[in-house]
Every structure is written in C-alpha cells, then in structure tokens.
Amino acid sequence: MSIFRRLIGIIMIVVGIVGLVISVAAAYFAGQAIDAIGVGLNSTVTLLEDTVDTTTASLENVKATLGEAGAALSTVTDATHNVATTIFDTQPLLEQATTMTTDTLPTSLDAVNTAIPNLAGIAGTIDTTLTTLSNFRINQTIGTGPFAIPLNFDLGIGYAPEEPFDTAVLAIGESLVPIPDQLRALETNLTTMTTNLGNIGTDVEALAGNISGINTTVEQFAPLIDQYITLLDQITGSLGMARDQINANIGMLKWAVIGLMLWFAVYQVMPIYIGYRMLSDKVVEGTVEEYLEDERKEMEERVKDAEEKAEEAEEKAEELADAARNAATDTPA
Q1: How many angstroms separate the most distant Cα atoms in the chain?
Q2: DSSP assignment, residue 280?
Q3: For a surface tag, which of 154, 187, 197, 227 has the fewest beta carbons within 10 Å of its beta carbon?
C-alpha cells in the first residue's frame, strides 16, 4: 500500500466527515434561522396590524367627535341667527324709545313747565279756599235757661298742610325744569347705541354664516374618514393574508433548506467510503487520478445543485421580506 494512497484516503475521510458535520450543523442552524425569520416577520405583521387597528379606532373617535362638533355648531348657528333676529327686532323699538325720550317727553315736560305758574296760582286759590273752609265753625247757644239749645257745627274739613299747595306745585315745577334738556342730551347716546346695536346684529349674522360654513367643512370630513377606515380595513385583511403566506412559505423554505443540507450530508458518505477503501488498500476500479477526477466532477455538480437551491431559497426569503416591507409601506402614518 503506497503512502500516497493512504494520504489521499485520510484526506477524503476528513473531508467527508467535515462535510457531514457542516451539513448536519447547517440543517440545524438553518432551520432555527428560518424559524427566527418567520417569528420576526410575524411580529412585524402583528405590530402593523395593531398599528392599523389603533389608527382605525382613532379615526372612529375623530369621526364621532366631528359628529358631535357638527351638532354643536348647528346649535350655535341657530342660536346666533336667533340673537341676530332679536337684535334687528329690538332696533326699531330703541328708535321709537329714543324719539319718545328725546323729543316727545321733553316737549311735554316743557309744556308742563310752562303751565306750572298758572297751576301754582290755581293751587294758591285752592289752598286759600280749603284753609277758609277748614276754619269755618259755628259754636253758639240758642235760647236761655232750660230751653237753651247748644249749636256746634263745622264743615268737617281738616286742612292743615305742612307746605302750601302752591309752594309744592312750584317746587315740582322747579324740579322738572332741567329734565327736558337732560332727556334731549340722551339723544346722541341713544342714537349711537341704536346704530351700534344694528352693527352688532350685522356682525352676529355674519358670525352665524361663518359658523355655518365651518359646520359644512366639518361635515365634509366624515366621508373622507370613512374612506380611510375602509382602506385600513383592507390593509388589515392584506396583512392577515401576508401572515398566512409568510407562515406557509417559511415552513416550505425551512424544510427545503433542511432537505438540501441532509442531501448534501448523504453525499459525504461516498468520500468517506472511498477514503476508507483507499486507507484499507481495498481494490478500487481505475486509477486514483481518474477516481478523484470523477469525484471532483460529481462534487462540482452537487455544489452547483446546492447553490441553485440556495439561490431559490434566498429568492423566496427576499420575496417574503419584500412582502413584509410593502405591507409596512402601505400602512398610513
């Protein structure tokens, strides 16, 4: 037995054992790696689903809030219109009150003030008359002796005022003298108030229109939110389908890689067997060089097959990763 054949046999046995160990280890760790990738992708999809659900719930709350805001704005709009109507209806009344306060009433008071001296004269006459009548009494006795008849008589008028009637009338007249001018002085303020009230009514009416426009804008958001909610529901369904596809493809990819590694491990039995035959100086048909050449070609074919399967597995993994990224990208912020 030549040393060269033994050396080649030992090398082939070592290479076969190393290849076998690598194949088994690769099958084991590749399965775990693929499981970890599957868990990571499922976690990502679950996170995306939770995010979409949270966004959907937020949009539902926003929709409900907008509905309540729209109802409140409608109420405010109606109340503002009513206030504007009340102000406009009050303005003519204020104009009439201004005319009465600054024109009619002062004119009447001027007439009263003009008549006060005459009224005071009449009041003096009345006061004198009432005083005379109040002082009128009869206190006499008719006859003498047992036939005497006492006669006491008065008009029953007790008139003794603290202040004479004409003096009181003149005092009233004096108190009324400045009132007409004071009332006329109110005309500017009352006219300004009426004008301002009209301006306020116009502003309130414009405010009611603005609130109505805001309410219309708010109502336009509801259909848009419904569209977003529908889109998010579709995304949730797509994420569920993506999870199912990921789980199915991950399982298939895992078993494909494990099978490929085990197939490669089985091929390592041949160099171990040949190395053992060469090491034990068993007969091997053909020369060592021819056998090694055949083994080399066979190994190259197996490596090529393994590379092709590895590329297919890599392409499937990239497709799964792209699907997960697309699902994440399509999710609205």
Answers
A1: 201
A2: T
A3: 227
In angstroms, rounded to a whole number, what is the distance separating the alpha carbons of residues 65 and 43?
A: 33
pLDDT band at 284 (very low <50, low <70, confident <90, very high): very low
Q: Which of 80, 76, 73, 79 is nearest to 218 (CA)?
A: 73
In tens, the pLDDT along 9-58 reads 778 778 878 878 887 887 788 778 877 877 887 788 788 888 888 888 88
Token pair of 271 as six digits:
């160099």
Say whether 162 sits in a helix, a strand or coil: coil
Q: Which two tokens stand for residue 151?
A: 């006669």
Q: Let me know if 315 is exposed, middle or buried by CB neighbors in 10 A (0-12, 13-18, 19+).
A: exposed
Nearest 5°: the CA angle 73, 76, 77 is 85
State the architecture of 3-330 in CATH terms: Orthogonal Bundle (1.10)
Q: What average pLDDT does the chain have?
A: 76
3-state DSSP call for residue 112?
helix
The tokens 């889109």 sit on which residue?
Answer: 231
Sign of CA dihedral 268, 271, 274, 279: negative
Residue type, 307: E
Side chain identity at residue 149, one-letter code: I
